[in-house]
Every structure is written in C-alpha cells, then in structure tokens.
TrEMBL record, chain A:
This is Sugar ABC transporter ATP-binding protein. Residues 7-240, 244-497 form the ABC transporter domain. Residues 497-521 are annotated as: Disordered. It comes from Actinomadura craniellae. Keywords: ATP-binding, Cell membrane, Membrane, Nucleotide-binding, Repeat, Sugar transport, Translocase, Transport. It comes from the Bacteria. InterPro entries: AAA+_ATPase (IPR003593), ABC_carbohydrate_import_ATPase (IPR050107), ABC_transporter-like_ATP-bd (IPR003439), ABC_transporter-like_CS (IPR017871), P-loop_NTPase (IPR027417). GO terms for molecular function: ATP binding; ATP hydrolysis activity.
Automatic annotation (TrEMBL), chain B:
One of its GO terms (cellular component) is plasma membrane. GO terms for molecular function: transmembrane transporter activity. This is ABC transporter permease. It is a multi-pass membrane protein. The lineage of its organism: Bacteria, Bacillati, Actinomycetota, Actinomycetes, Streptosporangiales. It comes from the Bacteria. The chain crosses the membrane at residues 21-40, 103-124, 131-150, 179-196, 208-227, 233-250, 276-297, 309-329, 336-352, 358-377. The keyword ATP-binding does not apply. The keyword Membrane applies. It is found in: Cell membrane. Keywords: Cell membrane, Membrane, Transmembrane, Transmembrane helix. Residues 385-424 are annotated as: Disordered. InterPro entries: ABC_transp_permease (IPR001851).
Length: 521, 424
C-alpha cells in the first residue's frame, strides 16, 4: 500500500438547511488498494458521508481531497468522472436490459453493442475473476449476481474507489463469498473500497482499516487488526452500556396464562422452526439485524405470509392463516412501514382508527355509526396526546410520532389480546418515543401479550421483559432482559458470540435460558 | 379556485370546491350554454320536459355502466371488458329465449355476465395479472364468443314470448308528480332530519334546506314540471341510489374505499381485500349483461359488434366524475353527472344541429380538461400539505392557519361528499 491517501476527508461537516447537523467533523483516509470499513449506528451520519463523497451533497465545511487535490463535486456525475463509484444497497440497474448493456449504460455512441464493447467486457470479467453471461437479462439474475454487475459497472467507469453500502444485506452465504472474493481480488489490483456494513464479522474478515462514526464525528479510526469486537461495539454505541434505564422489569407473573403460542413456524422467506410463547403481561423483544428475519416472524405470526407453516394459538385457540383471522382472534399488528402498511393516507383519522373494528361500531354490522367512530377517534386523540387539527385530518398531515399513535389507536379499543409491534418507534421523535414505550408497558400491565421487534437494542431492553435473538431466520438465543446487556445482544445478533459453532444451535452461554425454557413448559 | 385564493376566514365548504364539485359546475355550465343557444336559435326549449326526459333516457345504459365501473375503479382495479360482455349478454338472452323462455334466458344472460366478471376478478386478484391486461384479453375473447354464438349475424328477438319479455323489462313509463313539489318535500325532510339530529334549528345546515323546501312547496301549485320517466331510467335511479348509499353509509363501502386506497394497510387491518375486489368485477359484469339486454330490448335485436367502445365511454364518465384510476377515490353520483355530461354533449350537438363530426373532438377535449382540473387541484392540496408539515409542530397551530385542511370549518362535511374522497 502506498502512503498517499487516495481519498482524504478532514473535519468534514454538514449542516442541512433545516438546521440538522448531520456531520460534525468526520476525518478518514482511504489508501489505494485498501478495503476501508465504515461502521456506525443508524443515524450516525454514514449515509450523509457517502453522499458527500459521491457528490450527492455538498459539505458545509472541511476538506475533501481526492488524489491529492482539494475537490468539491458539483454533482454525482463529477465524482463518477473522477473515479468514485457508489454501489447502493438497492442496486439501481435496468432490469429489462442485459448484463453488458447495464455495464456500459453510460457509454455514448450510436450502437447498442459493438465488438469493442464485448472485448472490453471480457477484459473486465477477467479482472474481476467472476464469470457472467453478458447477454443474460438482469431481471433474471439473483441479487448476488446483480451486485457483481454493479461492480463491473463501477470498473467500466474506471473507478479507483468503490463505495459499497451494505452490499451483503440480502445475500446468501455463498453469494457473500463471491462478493468478498471480488473485493479482495480488485483491491489487490489497486482499486480501493469503502465498505459499509452492519455486520461486524464482515468488517473483521474483509477490511484493512475501519472507521466508526457516531453522532456525525469520527470516534474510531484504526487498522482493523488492532481493533477488538468490544472496541467496535463501544465505539458504535458510545457507552459502556450501563446507563440503560430499564422499566420496572419485575416481569410477568410466572403463573400467568400463555396468551400467544407459536409453534414450528417456517416459511418460504427463510424462517425455520420458530417457536415461542408469550404470557399475559409479558413484553417479548425480538432482537436481530436487518435481514435476520425479525420482521418476517411478526408477519408470519399475523398470518400475512401465505407460505408460512406452523401453528399460532391465541388463548389456546388456533388461528387461521390469514390476516383477517388474526384480527378476528384479537391480534393487533403495527407494521414497520407506517405510511405504506399501517395507515390510509387519504382517509381521515376517525376512519383509520375504526377500520379494524368497523363491524362492532356499526348498526347490524353494516351501517357504521359515524358519531361513535368520531367519538372513539376523539378519545384516542385525547388518550394518546395526538397532536392534530382534529379527527378529520388525514394521517399524511401528521408527524411520524403522531401518525404512529394513530396506528396504535386502530387496535387499542378493539378486543385485542396480542400486540405485534414492528419497529414501533422508528422515525419518531424523542417525546413521542417515550409516550409509545409507556403505552406498550401499559398494554402489558393490562394483561396483553406484547411482541416487539426493534433494531435498537438499547430501546428493546428498556421495553422488553424477555428477549429472543434471531439470526438467519431462527431463534439463536433467549435472554431475560434484566440479565443481559446491549453488548451481548449485539454480539449474539452478529453471530460473534459463538464463532466456532456458528448459528447452528443456541450457544452455550445461554444455559440459564435452557432452564428457563424447560421450566416454562 | 377562488376558495384557494382567499386566505382569511371564509372558505368554500370542501364539497363545493372545484376539485370536488367541478363536474357539477361543468354540467351546469354546459346545460346553461345549450339552453341559451337553443333559445337563441328558436328551437325546442332545451330544458323542457321532453328533452330532459330524453337526456335521462339516453343516459341510462352509460349511466349504469359508469356506476359499476366506478365501483371497480374505487376498489383499485380496471375493467375494459364490459362492452363485449354487454353484447354477449344480449346475444345469450335473445338467442335462448325462443327455446327456454325469456325469463330463464335473461337469468342465464346475467349469470354469463357475472361469470365473466368472476373470471376477471379471480385472475386479477388470485393469479395476480394486471387488470388492464386481463380485461383487455376478456374484452377481445368475449367479443369473439359473441361472434361464435351469433355466427356473425344480427340476432333478432323472435316474436311472441321474447318480445313480450323485452317489453316487460323495458316498455313501461311513468309520469312523475310535480318535481318542484317533490324537491321541496325532499329538502324539507332533509332540513328537519338535520335539525333533529343536531338539535340546532338555526344552523345554516338545517335552515337553508328548510327555507328552500318551504319556498318550493309553496310555489308548487304555480310551478309545474313533470317528466315522463321510462322504465330503464328508473333502473338507473334505483341503482344509483342503492350504490351511493352502500358506498357512502355502509361498512361495505368503507372497506371498498380502504381496499382501493391502500390495499396493504386494508389487508393488515383484517379486510378481505381480494374478495371485495372480485365482487366489484362480478357486479360490473352482471350490470353489463343487463344493459346489453336493455340495449337489445329497444332495438329488438343485437348486432355482434354492437356496444363496442361502451367500456371506454363508461370509463370516461367515471373519470369526468373525478374517479381515480389508482383506486380509493370516486363517487357514484359524480360519475353519473359525468355520464350526463357526455350524453348532454351528444344531445346538444343534435339539437343545435352542429355537425356530428365535431362531437368526438369536443368530448376528448372535455375529458382531458376535466382530468387536468382534478390533477392540478390534487397536486395543490398535496403541496399545501407538505408546507404544513414543514412548519414546526408547536402544539396546536395558531388559529387561522391553513392546517385545518378541509375538515376544520366544515365540521360534519360528509353529507354531500363521501368522506373518503377528501384525500388522495
């Protein structure tokens, strides 16, 4: 590795027009031919940083030096021209064109295909060491191959630095190997990589140097070999992980009846033998990384995954495999995508709130009593402190936290026994977050069974009484919330706790849970 | 438009704004222009009882289809097959009524229409092929079946039972009581109902219809306006009333709007979205077969290429009425007005003796202008919403800010407009 950095950032800051300070001073140096890891929690400023490097945003302050010269990109095209290629998580290829046409998409020239282009493609494929049919249509390729097409595209553009944003998030283990091999091979030839990943094991395996950003500043920047897992976790979370305020985690009465009983849930999307029970008054947390199957479990329990097999019982009665049956059985589902799945943006709040329970609010189950519906919505607005001009407002006009409260209100006044919450506090401001967490505890106090999925483990621990860790579509560990830490959950979710045995079985340190499980039965 | 421009205190109620009631204004404008023009040319009075009855009669077939097409569009789908299904229904009814009798043949025709609708719905919802493609296919295929059934020849209703049956479903006509009196009584009833419900007799929402009702009833001995309602027009009115009631007031309607507006959220709220959408197709197919028979009843025969392009006219009427092609938005009443506009245009061209050649051009322009008005008003509403969201959420907004949206002053707006229409 040469000593002159290819890309140097020094004290880069970014303040958005609305006053949000996304970056407060990030410094990093990428050397030619190196693989540089970039790690940070959601909202730490990673994506803003990538956008500045790739020219989508202008930095507010600081230095961006590319091959020894101070540069400011006018637009992403300028950065690309200079040799910086960005491969996003959702690869923006044209699905209806062939591989070779995608690779040379930005070439000018009258002909769609020439012999020269084919020769160039062959040369690129040789460099990459990955065989791919140039005439295959991209839509027919698996995601892993599409990543490779994007890499080829970057090479064809003459990239000296390739930024990869979570390239393996939706790849199988085998496809991951292919991407890793390509990265290693190309970096040996002198192409530099900026590799962004949530998976710490990948960072350790692949990168030469790792930079951690938190709250818009660089908090760690060292050669990977000198970094330990603990350092990484601490740098990402910024704490020794003590100060988590826990709820009065007395937990539920161990003799409380089992409300939700899930047995042997498997599905085409990759769930395997998921079984768990939730007692009345219990808040069960599901911890896992993006793509671990955490959301899929909730969907399958709710009956919204037609490929799912297994049984779901609510209060002992088996629930049919449809969302309709689940709703009828008293299961409430707060989906991850609020606007797309949780709410009707065009219907006023009062119609949104009454929708799951409309029949009960209607004369003869046919003619809705609109006055009652409005009164119910008004009660929800008061109970939950929803900031809205009135119940006639449409949810599209509300802020994230208030819209989420409307989703909660849809199920609060119905005969709900089980709450399935998928990222209930995502994109919600601090005040509303506290409100929602209090609400969730209140549900448990009323004797409901609550299952909550949350990518922020600190928050998960502050809400849940018991936590299941999910990786690769199966439950790999179980912990009592008071007796675990965010760090431990992170390790388990990353698959780092049991490196030799892999995520095959529940790891040894979960012995206390085995007891837990056995005495539950 | 003017309502958007006046910032301060008074704003036009949501139901009367251009984006919501544009089609009604357009219809009123069109009728006024035609009435003045025909007056100036010294032709028959355009708004006379004969012509009004004529327009209603001519609107029947397209009106019925516009209603059921609107239902399909609200549910989030699209149906191009109804013109062909109508021809098939007529062909089935006429060619079978000789052998099995008229009423069984009619039932069979309706069942055929329902079956095609069921096929459309099942393929679209459960196989998952785009509705446009599926119904384009059934449109072509069903027209082919009509040719097979009729062997390419016009089918004429045989004399006797068939003719009598056709007369039974389409021959009748009634003269209405004085419409001024009727309208007055309806207004009175509405005013009394509203007042009784809110217990506020002086509120304009109750007072206006009460006063107008009293005035109309009082004037009714002097003002007399009666028209001759044909039997088919009665079908239209009944269907429109039932459909409007179901969509506006029942859980079925609410769930239909919800299914079309956001299918995913509706399903996750426990609504059987697929079932609602299939039923909409079945309804559309059945109605199509029925209007096919009505069409044949007047002619006494059905041509295998008859009723071609009817599906597009029905769609045009629905679009004129502000129905969204993306689902979740639309109103039976307004689609009906849309159908009336199309029929009035045609009728006006005839009455004023303008060249029929110009008709298509004018209809097309009207359609695009209408869609443009809806799109612009919807976009304006959305940009306003974004501006509202960007202002910092400092608890309850200061009074008079626009973020009360359409709801603030209207209080209880739905009487005129299905509330589901107010968003996007």
């Amino acid at each position: 590795m040469s000593d002159d950095p290819l890309l140097l950032l020094d004290g880069v800051t970014k303040t958005f027009p609305n006053g949000t300070q996304a970056l407060r001073g990030v410094s990093l140096a990428v050397r030619p031919g190196s693989v540089h890891g970039l790690v940070g929690a959601n909202g730490a400023g990673k994506s803003t940083l990538v956008k500045i490097i790739s020219g989508a945003h202008q930095p507010t302050g600081g230095v961006l030096r590319w091959t020894g010269q101070d540069r400011r990109w006018r637009d992403p095209g300028a950065a690309r021209q200079a040799g910086i290629a960005t491969i996003h998580q959702h690869v923006p290829l044209v699905p209806t064109l062939t591989v070779i046409e995608n690779v040379f998409l930005d070439r000018r020239g009258a002909w769609r295909m020439t012999a020269a282009l084919r020769a160039e493609f062959a040369a690129l494929v040789d460099r990459l060491g990955y065989r791919i049919d140039p005439d295959a249509v991209v839509a027919d390729l698996p995601i892993g191959s599409r990543q490779m097409v994007a890499v080829l595209q970057a090479l064809a553009a003459g990239a000296q630095l390739v930024i990869m944003d979570e390239p393996t998030a939706s790849l199988s283990e085998q496809e991951r190997r292919v991407v890793f091999d390509a990265v290693r091979r190309l970096s040996a030839q002198g192409t530099a990589f900026l590799y962004i990943s949530h998976f710490f094991d990948e960072i350790f395996e692949l990168t030469d140097r790792v930079t951690v950003v938190r709250d818009g500043t660089t908090v760690l920047d060292e050669a990977t070999e000198t970094v330990t897992e603990g350092m990484l976790v601490r740098a990402v979370t910024g704490r020794e992980l003590l100060a988590v305020e826990r709820a009065d985690t007395a937990g539920p009465d161990p003799g409380a009846p089992v409300v939700l009983d899930v047995a042997d849930l498997s599905s085409a999307v990759g769930l395997r033998d998921v079984s768990f029970q939730v007692r009345a008054g219990e808040i069960l947390g599901i911890a896992g990384l993006l793509g671990s199957g955490r959301s899929e479990i909730l969907r399958a329990v709710f009956g919204d995954d037609p490929s799912a097999a297994g049984t779901v019982r609510v209060n002992g009665a088996e629930v049919g495999r449809s969302a309709r049956a689940a709703v009828a059985a008293g299961v409430a589902y707060v989906p991850e995508d609020r606007a797309g799945q949780g709410l009707h943006g065009g219907l006023p709040i009062w119609q949104n709130v009454s929708l799951p329970d409309l029949a009960r609010l209607s004369r003869g189950r046919l003619v809705p009593r609109t006055a009652d519906e409005r009164a119910l919505a008004g009660r929800a607005v008061a109970d939950l402190g929803i900031v809205t001009p009135g119940v006639e407002a449409v949810p599209g006009e509300l802020s994230g936290g208030n819209a989420q409260k409307v989703v909660f209100a849809k199920w609060m006044y119905a005969d709900t026994h089980v709450w399935l919450l998928d990222e209930p506090t995502a994109g919600v401001d601090v005040g509303a977050k506290a409100d929602l967490l209090r609400l969730i505890r209140q549900f448990a106090a009323q004797g409901k069974a609550v299952v909550i999925v949350c990518g922020e483990f600190e928050e998960l621990l502050s809400a849940a009484t018991r936590v299941l860790v999910v990786r690769g579509g199966r439950i790999v560990a179980e912990r009592q919330a008071p007796r675990t830490t965010e760090e431990e959950l992170l390790m388990l979710a990353h698959g780092l706790w049991t490196e030799p045995s892999g995520p095959e079985q529940a790891p040894e340190p979960s012995d206390p849970n085995e007891e837990e499980m056995s005495h539950e039965r | 438009m003017s309502a958007e421009a006046t910032p301060g205190r008074w704003r036009l109620p949501a139901a009367l704004r251009l984006g919501n009631a544009g089609v009604v204004y357009a219809f009123a404008l069109l009728v006024t222009v035609l009435a003045i023009a025909s007056q100036a040319q010294g032709r028959v009075s355009y708004l006379g009882p004969t012509n009004v009855a004529n327009i209603l009669d001519q609107s029947t077939l397209i009106g019925i289809l516009a209603i059921t097409t609107t239902i399909v569009l609200i549910s989030g789908n699209f149906d191009l097959s109804v013109g062909a299904v109508a021809a098939l229904g007529a062909a089935v009814c006429l060619s079978l009524s000789d052998s099995i009798g008229f009423w069984p043949a009619l039932a069979l025709a309706l069942a055929t229409g329902a079956l095609v609708g069921l096929f459309n719905g099942v393929v679209v919802q459960y196989v998952g092929i785009n509705a446009f493609i599926v119904t384009l296919g059934t449109m072509t295929a069903v027209r082919g079946i009509v040719l097979i059934v009729t062997d390419g020849r016009t089918v004429t209703a045989p004399d006797g039972a068939a003719r009598e049956g056709l007369r039974a479903i389409d021959g009748g006509a009634w003269v209405t009581p004085n419409l001024y009196l009727l309208a007055g009584l309806v207004l009175l009833a509405a005013g009394i109902w509203r007042a009784a419900r809110t217990r506020r007799w002086r509120a304009p929402r109750a007072l206006v219809p009460l006063v107008a009702g009293v005035a109309l009833v009082a004037a009714s001995p002097a003002l007399i306006f009666t028209i001759r309602i044909t039997q088919r027009t009665l079908y239209l009115l009944v269907l429109a009333a039932v459909a409007a009631w179901v969509l506006r007031y029942t859980t079925i309607g609410r769930r239909l709007y919800a299914s079309g507006g956001n299918a995913e959220a509706a399903r996750l709220s426990g609504i059987a979205v697929d079932r609602y959408r299939v039923v909409a197709f079945v309804l559309n197919g059945t109605a199509a077969a029925f209007i096919g028979v009505l069409y044949a009843a007047r002619l006494g025969s059905i041509n295998p290429t008859g009723l071609s392009g009817f599906e597009l006219t029905a769609l045009a009427a629905a679009i004129l009425g502000g129905t969204s092609l993306f689902g979740g938005l639309g109103s039976v009443a307004k689609s009906l007005v849309g159908a009336l506009i199309l029929v009035t245009l045609k009728n006006g061209f005839n009455i004023l003796n303008l060249g029929a050649n110009w008709q298509g051009l004018v209809e097309g322009v009207v359609l695009i202008v209408a869609a443009g008005v809806y799109t612009v008003s919807l976009r304006r509403r959305q940009t306003r919403r974004i501006r509202e969201v960007e202002t910092p959420p400092t608890g309850s907004g200061p009074p008079g800010t626009p973020d009360t949206g359409e709801a603030g002053e209207a209080g209880d707006p739905p009487a005129k407009v299905p509330a589901a229409q107010k968003g996007d």
